Amino acid sequence: MKKTISLILALVIMAVLPLTANAVAVTADYTLFLYSDGKLYTDHWSGEDVTAAMAAAGAVVTGSSGAWVLTLTDFSFETASEWGLNVPGNTTIVLNGANTIESTYNGTKNPAGIISSGALTINGSGSLDVVTSNASATISYGIHAVVGSITINGGTVTAVGATRAMLPSYTVPNGYKYWVNTAMQAPGGEGSVSDGSFVVDITYKYAKIEVPVLTDPEPDPDPDPDPDPKKYIFSTKYEATTINWILFFVCFGWIWMWF
Predict the structure, then answer these.
(1) What sign does the dihedral 134-139-35-201 (CA atoms) show?
(2) Is residue 19 scored above 50 in pLDDT?
(3) Which alpha helices (H) appear in the chain, and where do they start and end?
């Protein structure tokens, strides 16, 4: 009997406890390549399919061809390869939790933390550090959109490169907070708020962009349906004073007729 009760209690505890799995940091010697078929490969489409392994590590692909969505959840990827992450144009990266993509490549090629063949969009509420950590590289970028623009709609994105943080240049939208440095180190401080004109160009090797979190404004108290209330009689649209005068003349006329 005691064994049965103990078993039941154990099952109940297992049922109510949340099942959580911590993402595993990935250290590699290859570029994580998102191909047009929506799968993740090592280096190239002819490489090893690591879609399932990356999903377990926190990188999940959804969407459709020409509009892939790569959701990163506490994803950490460090590689000795030239590029950290290579994605097709019009890919959207969604951020959850703290994410890192870093290339430690030390060679003659031009490394980048993230390279996109076209426009790249970053959404979400998490953070992403994109780093090419080899300061001696002749040319290296944090984020490089080869043909197209870089758009950041959510989260906090940090890009670091020996040549420049971002290519092409990125205009920080109005209200966004930013930190920049002509060296590869974080500048510290509280950052600046953009008026919509600041540009992260070739001058900067470090750039951190923080998208403001929009909160719902406090709802206004229910307005007085009638700020200048008037007294009404019998729920009519006429003011009480109007009704009073009508009744006065009716009564006056009735009395006049009888007397």
Answers:
(1) positive
(2) no
(3) 2-16, 51-57, 240-258
